[in-house]
């Protein structure tokens, strides 16, 4: 990472998973804030200043899909804030495609280790730096590793 540290908001109700990602990201120079509910995540996200938002789908009070829709409707531009959906649930193709149109990434938590999450974010940073005027590729993962979280 060059320049200012990147800021990441993790909106995830499973504290174990959230802390697992946050710890790895912090060790690698990111500024990380965590929240566990949809309304709190939405409020923090709307304040702006985030480079990335890791957004779970299944959240208390309002879903991650609702948070995503509201953020994009309010003008959270893809160039300024990358939103990566993280979920443990496979969506039907239509739902997944609808989310992918609004999000910059869609990842299955059970298949993404903290180290792999770090690599994905670093890859997105490199893509953005290389072609700042073009949209980033959407990372999609289907690999399984030994240190995969079980939650």
Secondary structure elements and pairings:
Blueprint: E1 7-11, H1 15-27, E2 31-35, H2 38-46, E3 52-56, H3 64-73, E4 82-87, H4 93-102, E5 105-108, H5 114-130
Parallel strand pairs: 1-2, 1-3, 3-4, 4-5
Helix pairs in contact: 1-5, 2-3
Biggest sheet statistics: 5 strands, parallel
Shape call: globular
Total beta strand runs: 5
Query: Any idea what the radius of gyration is?
Result: 14 Å
Query: What is the CATH architecture descriptor?
Result: 3-Layer(aba) Sandwich
Write the CATH homologous superfamily. Answer: Response regulator
Looking at the structure, the CATH topology is: Rossmann fold
Q: Termini distance?
A: 29 Å
Determine the mean pLDDT.
82
Strand content: 15-25%
Which runs of at least 5 residues are low in confidence (pLDDT < 50)? 134-151
Number of domains: 1
Q: Given this structure, which CATH class is correct?
A: Alpha Beta
H and E order: EHEHEHEHEH
The DSSP helix count reads: 5
Structural class: alpha/beta
Strand order, largest beta sheet: 2-1-3-4-5
């Amino acid at each position: 990472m060059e320049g200012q540290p990147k800021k990441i908001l993790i909106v995830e109700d499973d504290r174990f998973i959230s802390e697992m990602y946050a710890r790895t990201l912090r060790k690698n120079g990111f500024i990380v804030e965590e929240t566990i509910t949809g309304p709190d995540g939405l409020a923090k996200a709307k304040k702006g200043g985030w480079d990335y938002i890791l957004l779970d789908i299944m959240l208390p009070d309002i879903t991650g899909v609702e948070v995503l829709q509201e953020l994009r409707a309010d003008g959270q531009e893809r160039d300024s804030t990358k939103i990566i959906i993280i979920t443990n649930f496979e969506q039907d193709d239509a739902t997944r495609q609808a989310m992918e149109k609004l999000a910059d990434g869609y990842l299955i938590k059970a298949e993404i280790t903290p180290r792999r999450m770090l690599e994905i974010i670093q890859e997105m940073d490199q893509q953005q730096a290389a072609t700042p005027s073009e949209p980033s590729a959407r990372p999609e993962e289907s690999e399984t590793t030994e240190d995969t979280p079980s939650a």
